[in-house]
Amino acid sequence: MALSLLRASRGLQRFATRPQLVTLQHQPPLAILSRHSAHNLTEKSDPSAVYDPSGEMDHDIVSKWKIERLFAGSMIAVLPAAFVIEHPIMNYLVATAFIVHGHWGLEGVFTDYIHGYPSETGRRRYPWVKSARMVVLYILTTTSLAGLFYFNYNDVGLQKAVKMLWEV
């Protein structure tokens, strides 16, 4: 049924036909890419440079991405350990892990979707948006971390709160 809806639409009909897909399969891989992308693929020996549209991959970004993945993987071990080892230090460790993980995730969302509306000239129409989004991100992160630390210090703590929620 979905294919019949696509065929009924004149504007999308060219995407639903099979001959275009077949012609792309018989072309060499570099012929499908634009001239600029093909030049970057042949010039760069670093495989991570393929994903960089400008051709210059920042190694800080790659190492940060690896650290984020290792950190997310380590949370798989930290969270169950937090319920086995009941200690205030573990409460603070879990709170910090949640906030750091959330900070990196929101940083990616803010970077991808809040960018200052590029104008026709290629310059940012609102250049202050880049710094404003980071200020908002750090305010959210700091407030969240302070709130969780306050909850850990003045109330039952994260471990006990989750256990109390499970009992309800």
How does this structure look, described?
The protein folds into two domains: 2-51, no CATH class; 59-167, Fumarate reductase/succinate dehydrogenase, transmembrane subunit (3 helical TM bundles of succinate and fumarate reductases). It is built from nine helices and no strands. Helices cover 71% and strands 0% of the residues. Mean pLDDT is 76; it is low at 12-24 and 30-52. It is elongated, with a radius of gyration of 24 Å. The chain has 168 residues and is mainly alpha-helical.
The structure class reads mainly alpha
Q: How many beta-strand runs?
A: 0
CATH fourth-tier homologous superfamily of the largest domain: Fumarate reductase/succinate dehydrogenase, transmembrane subunit
* Integer tally of domains: 2
Classify the fold: give the CATH topology of the largest domain.
3 helical TM bundles of succinate and fumarate reductases
Shape: elongated
How far apart the termini lie comes to 45 Å
Low-confidence stretches: 12-24, 30-52
Q: Describe the sheet with the most strands.
A: none
Which range best describes the helical content: under 10%, 10-25%, 25-40%, 40-55%, 55-70% or over 70%? over 70%
Under CATH at level 1, the class of the largest domain stands as Mainly Alpha
Please work out how many helical segments DSSP would assign: 9
**SSE arrangement, N to C:** HHHHHHHHH
CATH architecture of the largest domain: Up-down Bundle
Rg, please? 24 Å
